[in-house]
Amino acid sequence: MGAAMGLGAAPQMPGMGGAPQMPGMQMKQATPQVSYMVGVNGQQAGPFDWNQLQQLVQQGQLTQQTYVWKQGMPNWAFAGQVQELQPLFMNAAPPQMPGMPPMPGV
Predict the structure, then answer these.
(1) Which residue intervals of 1-106 are DSSP H helices?
(2) Helix, strand or coil for residue 37?
(3) β pairing state of 77-78 and 67-69
């Protein structure tokens, strides 16, 4: 019975050890392959890949109200309405509230 248990356990161990590593590896390589045009100051700019889009968000040039377009889209759309781009805005700082004066000393 001990030999049978040993044989049964051996095939499970490699599978158990390999399964958690693969999803982690896939997550690190999960940068979407995209190529978007972006409306900047009324002009079309791009195409931009995912990393460039992230930089535009950090610089405040790409917001949820910025027009974007990629091949396959029928029309330009606000970036905030494009599901594929939602992760770009998850960690973005909120804009200043309208009507609020800047804080003194900032």
Answers:
(1) 2-28, 50-58, 86-89
(2) strand
(3) antiparallel
Pair 50, 78: CB distance under 8 Å = no
Coil vs helix vs strand at 77: strand
pTM of the complete model: 0.58
First and final CA of the chain: distance in angstroms?
A: 74
Which tokens sit at 48?
């931009």
pLDDT of residue 92: 61
Span 7-22, mean pLDDT? 47
- Tokens in use for 97? 């509230």
Q: Compute the C-alpha angle 51/26/66, nearest 5°.
A: 30
Determine contact, residues 67/43, Cβ cutoff 8 Å.
Answer: no
C-alpha to C-alpha distances, 59 to 10, 22, 56, 83, 100, nearest whole angstrom: 53, 34, 5, 21, 21
Beta bridge partners of 38: 45, 68
Q: How far does Cα 16 stand from its chain's mean position? A: 29
